[in-house]
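Following up on my earlier message about magnesium ion. Here are the inputs again, as you asked, copied directly from the submission form:
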Amino acid sequence: MSLTVSNITKTFTKFAALSDVTFEAEPGEFLALLGPSGSGKTTLLRLLAGLDVPDSGAIAFDGDNFLALNARDRRIGMVFQSYALFRHMTVAENIAFGLTVRPAKDRPSKADIKAKVESLLKLIQLEDYGKRFPAQLSGGQRQRVALARALAISPRILLLDEPFGALDALVRKDLRRWLRRIHDETGVTTVFVTHDQEEALDLADRVVVLKEGRIEQIGKPLELYRDPATAFVFEFLGANNQASGTLRGGSVDFGGFSVPAIVKGGSEGAVTARFRPFDTQVSRSGPGFPVKVLSVLPAGANLRLELQGDGGEVYETQHAHDADTSELKAGDTVNLLPTKVYVFA
Amino acid sequence: MRSRPAEAPKTPAAIGLSLVAVFWLGLIILLPLVTVLFEASKAGVEPFLAAVAEPDTIAAIQLTLLVAAIAVPLNAIFGIAAAWCITRFEFKGKGLLLTIIDLPFTISPVIAGLVWMLLFGAQGWFGAWLRLNDIHIVFALPGLVLATVLVTLPFVARELIPLMNDQGTDEEVAARTLGARGWDIFFRITLPNIKWALLYGVLLCTARAMGEFGAVSVVSGHIRGQTNTLPLQIEILYNQYEAVAAFACASILAGLALITLLLKSVLEWRFAGELAANRRH
Ligand SMILES: Nc1ncnc2c1ncn2[C@@H]1O[C@H](COP(=O)(O)OP(=O)(O)OP(=O)(O)O)[C@@H](O)[C@H]1O
Ligand SMILES: [Mg+2]
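Thanks, got it. Here's what our run produced:
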């Protein structure tokens, strides 16, 4: 039961919110839509849910033409960024809504609905909260109720729009694990929107990276991280550094030393090389850019350095604690050597 | 959540302002109310009852209630529909629609009455046609209802629009993805969310409809026992120097208004918890 999105375009008064978007979600897959604010994530989700219509393109699920079905017939579970719980209903009534609103002939019996609600309350670990109103819950609890309400209709796909956007970091991490567990238990195909790269890489089976309404890259988290297709993906997925050099025969020459490059585009000659904080070495006498240590910060088992070059450019690097690095302190002068650089078109 | 005002006024300025407010309220609202009741009761219970039992007065009370019973539901339905359009859709001319809804607040009720005369009066645009078909609008119940509807049109819409704007469409959209149909969404999501504001608007609208004088006066024709509403009846009695009867009717009208207010307070008190939960969300 796979979801297929082909060549979707959506324009708001001349402004293209989505251009030629194509991707697929495998049955039971957990797919993240990742992109900065305004990249079209919510727009795409609304099209999938049937709350809006694309200008062109196709959306199919398991052979059904989704565009021919309206929102209520698609049987999609949607969790909104704002939760959108029904404020005048109790938690239990909220969860039961998708079942009680069915026409009499399709509606499960009262006892069945009650049993379903109870099992969902158990799933979201809020067994004793059924009689409360949404206003009497914390943000994280509301989020879980919103998820239970969406799951109650046994959705064919679950759509989540920045579900943890409004929560603090600790609760987010907790819910993230929990959401993944729920997904693994129910096995429902899930499309999850976020602008937090860490969240996307941590949770998803595959990630679709959006930029200004276009897909930049689709891939497994590690693939994206190790093998980014564009400078945008490289920069969006984590801390990074830049330096100018000359590309020649698969290496970048920085004048005096040269570093092997992963070349994703561009031609021989002057290029901007990018590298990750981990792909570096610092030494007192080896090759590299002469830099001054601005600060030394512990980062868990690692050490994070802030370095400044002669021209004022700032680099961020990370290293394991070892004999060389442990002695570093602010004000020292060292040489920074990238061990692996990326070159993009 | 709304911010709460501080507990009680403490500074001299705050106390002074409060006194001014209380004094003004007493002078402008309570004094006339007390006067009406006092004047009505001065002559004693018997003349009061006699005045109220007068067939013309009873007819006026019935007519007033009937007009309100027709006009208020019409405006409630219109108010919900208008608030729905304005808060749920983007369209050209929205600002204009909002202004038009406010118009009855700003124009004189006399004009609201004259408009109907101009349209349906004997010399009006449709006057000849109406006479030909023996349809009575002005100087009859339909005219009274039209005038009242026009004057009380904004009350419900004005209560609902800010609230529905605040609440947004999220819950309705969520209900749709959960499989709800249009009317299910309205009756199970929209209506419960606006019911208090709706009730409040309806009560205000009712009070205003029963008290309407200017517009109704123009279209009524003042046919005793037939097209005189309670406010018109009061004026007639007063002009005929039947002071006791006039004040007796006035106290009935004031009583109807007070009952409306009381109803509102009782409901607010009875459902205080639910109201607070609604606001807090
Ligand atoms: N109804 C609309 N009318 C006009 N423009 C719109 C509308 N909805 C969205 N847009 C525009 O389309 C673009 C994409 O919006 P969208 O809400 O999909 O972004 P997003 O990726 O969800 O961003 P965020 O992370 O901030 O939620 C934005 O530039 C937005 O201004
Ligand atoms: Mg969004």
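One observation from looking it over: The pocket of magnesium ion (ligand 2) is lined by residues A 41-42 (CB under 6 Å). Hope that helps, and feel free to reply on this thread.
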